């Protein structure tokens, strides 16, 4: 796999400033730039600038992945191992997480822009390899329009592994997808629908401070990891049953 070119977004010293005026719902003026706490530069506005500064930076502080992200990635790795067993192949990546995505999950979340951007990263994780899932479906004829989460739901149901924990996990994944489909940068922002979904998840929204964004993101990471864990346990049971 090609090693991605790093930039200042992978450094502990970077602050991302994103402000919308007069409000996020009806922004007229948007301020979007980066600051360096180590004083290497005063302000940067583009990814190219961040790459150039990082390449010659004397004060790099490599971003350490958070414990929450480590737990999430561990579940992803284990799920891929179980899928390899189910498919009878040595190594299968039904869930794909590259270096950029993993680092993006661990960066600070201090604004609505950060939060929705990170939700889009979780959406990418949920873009499971569809062909692998279709191969495992025996009694169910998959609709060509089904995507990863829907295929996973039918796989678990077909093999009797779609119980309450798995239903809650799939429902959470579907809410993550719904938020991504109603927010920028991927889609037109639908604030009322997004607010309803986030409150259903149990998040504080609208927020009253930048700290709320980080707390909301941490809560999403925990719930996402718990949902992956439920899926992993169900798939492990399925693998044991089919192996016997």
How would you characterize the overall build of this protein?
The chain has about 240 residues and is mostly helical. It has two domains: about 10-55, no CATH class; about 65-244. The protein has nine helices and two strands; from the N terminus they run E-E-H-H-H-H-H-H-H-H-H. The protein has a two-stranded antiparallel sheet with strand order 1-2. It is globular.
Descriptive tags:
9 helices; mainly alpha; 244 residues; two-stranded antiparallel ribbon; 2 strands; 2 domains
- The coarse silhouette is globular
Order of helices and strands: EEHHHHHHHHH
Q: Quick check: average pLDDT? A: 90
Q: Please, how many helices?
A: 9
Q: What structural category arises from helix and sheet content?
A: mainly alpha
Helix content: 40-55%
Number of domains: 2
Could you give a quick summary of the protein structure above?
This protein has 244 residues and is mostly helical.
Task: Chart the SSEs and their pairings.
Elements: E1 14-21, E2 29-36, H1 47-55, H2 67-87, H3 99-106, H4 112-125, H5 130-136, H6 148-158, H7 164-180, H8 191-201, H9 210-243
Helix pairs in contact: 2-9, 4-7, 4-9, 5-6, 6-7, 7-8, 7-9
């Amino acid at each position: 796999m090609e090693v991605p070119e790093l930039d200042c977004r992978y450094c502990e010293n970077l602050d991302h400033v994103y402000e919308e005026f007069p409000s996020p719902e009806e922004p007229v003026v948007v301020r979007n730039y980066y600051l360096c706490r180590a004083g290497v530069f005063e302000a940067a506005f583009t990814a190219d600038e961040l790459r150039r500064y990082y390449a010659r930076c004397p004060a790099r502080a490599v971003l350490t992945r958070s414990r929450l992200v480590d737990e999430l990635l561990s579940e992803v790795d284990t799920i891929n191992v179980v899928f390899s067993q189910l498919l009878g192949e040595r190594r299968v990546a039904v869930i794909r997480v590259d270096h950029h995505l993993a680092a993006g999950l661990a960066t600070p979340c201090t604004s609505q822009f950060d939060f929705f951007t990170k939700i889009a990263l979780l959406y990418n994780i949920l873009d499971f390899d569809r062909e692998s899932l279709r191969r495992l479906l025996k009694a169910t004829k998959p609709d060509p329009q089904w995507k990863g989460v829907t295929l996973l739901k039918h796989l678990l149901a077909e093999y009797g592994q779609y119980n309450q924990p798995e239903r809650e996990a799939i429902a959470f994944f579907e809410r993550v997808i719904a938020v991504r489909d109603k927010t920028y940068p991927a889609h037109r922002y639908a604030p009322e629908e997004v607010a309803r979904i986030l409150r259903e998840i149990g998040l504080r929204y609208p927020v009253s401070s930048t700290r709320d964004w980080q707390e909301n993101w941490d809560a999403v990471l925990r719930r996402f990891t718990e949902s992956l864990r439920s899926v992993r346990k169900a798939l492990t049971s399925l693998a044991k049953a089919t192996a016997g």
